[in-house]
Amino acid sequence: MARETEKKGMVWFKNSRSNQNLPEKNHSEHQEVDIKAEEESAYSGESELPAAEGNNHLFSKDSQDKIGLDVIVSIENMLKERQLLSYKNKGLEDQLSTANETINRYKQEQIKRDQLIQEKNKEIRELENVLTNKQMSYDQLLEDYKEYQLTTNLAYEKLSSQLETETAKYNKLYEESNNTQYQSMLKINSLEEKIRELEIANQRYAEQYQNILDDKAKLMQTINDFTEKMSFSFSPKTAASSTSSD
After folding, report:
1. What average pLDDT does range 22-34 have in this prediction?
2. Helical H runs in the chain?
3. I want to staple 64 with a disulfide (CB 3.0 to 4.6 A). Which of 68, 118, 162, 223 is the partner?
């Protein structure tokens, strides 16, 4: 019975290992088969328990010889090994469940990543379209710039020629202006010299006029003094003649 249980456990373990690499649908079907096998083995174990309890006296160590004791010890070791295998199978089942959950999580993440990749690819296509439009706009702007540069160069050459002509005219006018300023400076210097001479002459005339005025004032003072003296000398005679007539 222990060997049959062990064989069933090994079969279940092999089925579990093979189910790990199958799709989820097949994996669920194998799990159902394994569950049925475990139920059948548990049922058979339960049916054999009463018989084992009824025959406990047959396996009593006190009433056994050496060979019987060896057999009993072997059976106990097999049972212990079976229990250990059961624990190991339980651990493997837990690991398998964890692995399946991890696989499912990875599948979900893979689906999300695929969706994200599709969205990113869509964004990349949109950016490529935008970049293509930008490139077309850039090419058009480049053509416009070349045309503008050609037009600007022609206008620059024309303005340069006009500037050279105007510069020549300016230089000619500047030279004439310098000559005119020089002639004006000579004339101004001459007029200033004449003005200085006239100022000196006017100053001399003013001094002479002031001297004449001083002489005239002195002459008028002399005349006034003489008049006063003459009027003083004639005044007694006039008074005496007036008295005699009265």
Report:
1. 43
2. 2-19, 24-54, 66-245
3. 68
